């Protein structure tokens, strides 16, 4: 449930201890995204296990020892397993994006009354991230307006 982008943004001055926004609900995007590491590790592990069985069933090739064959096939099947794990993760991640929903969060002292429980730190970080995203969207809109105005001014100047 945690979004890694929460920790990528530097904290704004005074926002860390500011709890004045906790009384009003904050609009937040809720998405349960899968973590990629377990998928990659599991895929690689299954690739190596399949290599063990492959060498045990098929035997060795001419001129190669069993450990050489096992090492080569373990590396090959491990890469294939990691790739398949990444593809499964990608499909699940895309699916989780389709099931995103916007929720309104508010700090409460009664966890039984809440639909989802977050710590104060998680709530504050999530709230700050959403506020920074809104500010960035407004800034982009202002930049686009300024560019359009500059273009219009340039066209009027030519005439």
Question: Which percent range fits the helix content?
Answer: 55-70%
The general outline is flat
Kindly estimate the percentage of residues that lie in beta strands according to DSSP. 5-15%
Cα-atom radius of gyration: 26 Å
The SSE string, one letter per element, is EHHEH
Give a count of the beta strands, DSSP E runs of length 2 or more: 2
Give the overall pLDDT as a whole number: 80
- Report the major sheet: 2 strands, antiparallel
Describe this structure in words.
There is one protein chain. With 159 residues, the chain is mostly helical. The chain has two domains: 79 residues, no CATH class; 52 residues. The chain contains three helices and two strands. A two-stranded antiparallel ribbon has the order 1-2. The protein is flat. The N and C termini lie far apart (56 Å). Keywords: Membrane, Transmembrane, Transmembrane helix.
């Amino acid at each position: 449930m945690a979004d890694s982008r929460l920790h990528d943004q530097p904290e704004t001055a005074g926002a860390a201890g500011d709890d004045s926004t906790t009384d009003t609900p904050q609009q937040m995007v809720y998405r349960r995204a899968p973590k990629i590491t377990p998928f990659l590790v599991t895929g690689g592990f299954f690739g190596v296990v399949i290599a063990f069985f492959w060498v045990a069933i098929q035997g060795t090739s001419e001129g190669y020892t069993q450990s050489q064959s096992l090492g080569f096939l373990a590396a090959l099947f491990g890469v294939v397993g990691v790739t398949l794990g990444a593809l499964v993760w990608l499909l699940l991640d895309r699916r989780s994006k389709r099931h995103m929903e916007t929720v309104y969060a508010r700090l409460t002292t009664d966890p039984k009354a809440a639909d989802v429980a977050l710590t104060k730190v998680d709530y504050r970080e999530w709230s700050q991230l959403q506020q920074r995203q809104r500010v960035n969207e407004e800034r982009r809109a202002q930049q686009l307006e300024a560019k359009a105005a500059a273009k219009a001014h340039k066209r009027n100047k030519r005439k």
